[in-house]
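INFO batch 0412 | record 1 of 1 | parsing
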Amino acid sequence: MFETTSECAERYEIDGFVAPLDILSEEQAFELRRDFEAAEAELAADQERTKLLMAYPDRLLPNFDAVIRHPNLIRAASIALGPDLMVWSGALFIKEPRSPKIVSWHQDLTYWGLNDAEEVTCWLALSAASEASGCMSFVPGSHKSRIVPHVDTFSANNLLSRGQEIAVDVNEDESVPAPLKAGQASMHHGHLFHASGPNVTDDRRIGMAIRYIKPSMKQQNGTKSLVALVAGQDDYGHFDIASVPKGRLHPDDFEICRKDAARRRAILFEGVD
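INFO prediction complete | emitting C-alpha cells
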C-alpha cells in the first residue's frame, strides 16, 4: 500500500497503475459479495436480468451504488482525474472455480467509443484475486502508448465483449502481477496493457471494474450513455446522470439499465457484422 498521495500519483504517472490500494475491510467486501450472490440467486431463472445485474450492479443494488462513491475510491480516482468524477461503468467480472476463462492482453479504451483518455479503472476485489485465481497483470509504462491495433477473437473463454486482444507483440516478461486481497483494489490507466489468466482455485474470483471518467468526456457518436456523478459537478451535460437506485432490484431500475445496455451494445460492437 502506498503511504502518501504524492507517492501514489508518482507511481501512476510512471507505471500507469497502482496496486494494491486498501479500500474496504475483508468483512465489507464479503458483505458486498453476499449481497450480489443473493441477488444472483434470486434472478437465477431470468438470464436477461442476471446479465444486467453483472453489467450494472451499481444501478440495481444500493450497496454497490454506495461503494462506487466510497471515499477511498474517490480519493484514488481523484489522483488521476481531479475532483469531478463520473462512473461510466461498474461491471462485475467473475471467474468461476476451476474456470479456463481469461482476459486477453488489451487496452480498456479500445471499443468504448469515448473521445479522450481521461479515464481510470479501479478494480475492486470482492474475493481474493491471487495469481492462482487469475489476478490481473500489467505492463508498466505501456499506458504511454495510444490505442494500438487489436483483433477480435470472440473466443468462448475470453471474458471481454469481443474477445479483443492486442495485435502487436506484448513482452510478457515485463508484465507485473497485481494480486489483491478481498477489499483491496488496483487502479490503472485506460491505455495500459493488461490481462489475466484462468482461475485454478476452488473459489470464485469476483471483481468490480469501476470506470471513472472526467465529465468533459463524451461518446464520439453523441449517445448519452448512463453514468453516475459521484464527486464534484458536471458542467458539460454529455451523459445521462443516473439517480441512486430506487430499491434493491427495482423493476424501474432494470428498465433504465435495459435501455442503456442497448445503447452501449451499439457502441461496443460497432463495425461487427
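INFO post-check: The first strand starts at residue 17 and ends at 22.
INFO record closed
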